Predict the structure.
Amino acid sequence: MNKILEGKYAVTMDMYPLQGKEFNRIYPFYEFLKEGRLTTTACRDCGKKAFPPRVVCPECLSENLEWVDLPTRGKVLVVTEEEVGVPLGFETPLIHALIDLGGELTLFSRVVNVKQGELKEGDEVKLTVFPVDPVSVEGKKGAVNLQERVFFAFEKA
Amino acid sequence: MDDLKGKVAIVGIGEVPSGRFPEREPIVSAVASARQAIIDAGIKKEEIDAVIPTAALWSPQYNTELVCCRIVEELGLCGKARMNFQVFSGGSSCCNMLKTAAGLILLGLARSVLCVHSDRLGTGVTGQGGIDLFSTAGISKEWEAPYGLHYSAIAGLITQRYVYETGTTEEQLASVCVSNRKWAELNPNAMFRKPLTIEEVMASKMLSTPLRAKESNVLADGGAAFLVTSAERARKLTDRPVYLLGEGSRVTHFALSQEPDMTRFAWAEAAEEAYRKAGLSPEDIDVAEIYDSYPVFQLIGLEELGFCKRGEAGAFVYAGNTWPGGKLPMTTNGGMLSQGHTGAGGGVALMVEAARQLMGKAGERQVSGARFAVVTATGGTYMDSYVTILGTEIP
Ligand SMILES: [Zn+2]
């Protein structure tokens, strides 16, 4: 559990998705992310590449999908620096950007390892993956297992 | 069904003041608003056979009470009402409530439909709780919430892009808040009624660049209701029925990054559909109740609905055209920036305000001779674009 949340909420707010196979239909996304790959689903029937990853092709409704790689470098389209009023567990400033991933898709992400005022439209950025709070999962005979989790952001290339 | 024009009308409205009212439970806001709307319409309450409460965000338990017919019981309609169900699409709920009511009436499934909203976002959540709620509600749990962004960061991003594309100035953006406040000064139900200047807006603290604190809506407790019936019944009740003349809408995305153009959305398509159905054009509109939540959305609305050319809305508002006495009165209750953000009620308040102006019941802020009004509304992270045209005449 996120330490900063302890004692503050009767029900803890968890800002990250559960990523294990037993909880998440798109668990391969997180497996690939641990390898530094940014992936999504593409349709084997009609060829449509969708983002975010889907369970059904939004073009032809086929369930015959495969995982494909996306570019891990992109260009910043817009930046906003969030200075106050962020959810519990986050520290300001948070720098958010809309990123053009090699013309293939537009993605919303945080940009880390950059100071306020340093990031602007047109800057090149690259993927970065980092661990986030693990989640405890009940195992057999009352055992509690910690499930590792990761998430991604971008940083200046 | 394409032709709703002039078939149903709003005949009664009710509203309680928005703000922080710890002693006023949300059911009180709902029932008081509904009572006002029934009295305003001058009908017997037994004529109401459908009740549509939209959702309250502050408490799932309270919301379940709304789903489970509490308002029907409170109003003494048990055994008489034929249906009670929820219509909810966040900020755009008001337009879906009206459309649903219209459909039920046109198909003969209901005679009179009571649409109600109440919520307690002012005193029902803590300051941090409100931030947490609006950093998760309607924001993609998997793809966007993990970055810790609040709606003000989303609005900041959209504002940044809009400024980049149009050259709109900080002063012009701030003037939208001033326009809304000038109307709120005349609105006894508004949360903020003290005069506001452009300088004060620009001196307020930065939330998420370039968006400042006084450019943000403020969470509030509130409630409102409107009563819808057939045009024939409406004409027997009043000589100023507020007819539904046209509506248009598009759903554009769930995750904001999937919106193809976050400085336009689908307002132009929705507006074209609504104007066409109503047989009206932007020049015919007397009052524009444009959904705010943040000032950039009113500028986008003015442009996409055809009141201004692209990139000119900022100068239009700055020059005072949307203020009391201006040529296009806009968001005449003060909007969520000044009346307060009551959840889905932000849109309901605009629908009620449009009807109020057309009924000639807007008191000090009455737009004289208002015949046609447009209402816009959107929910989630601006996931949909709804345009509704109301009027006291059927053109
Ligand atoms: Zn396909």
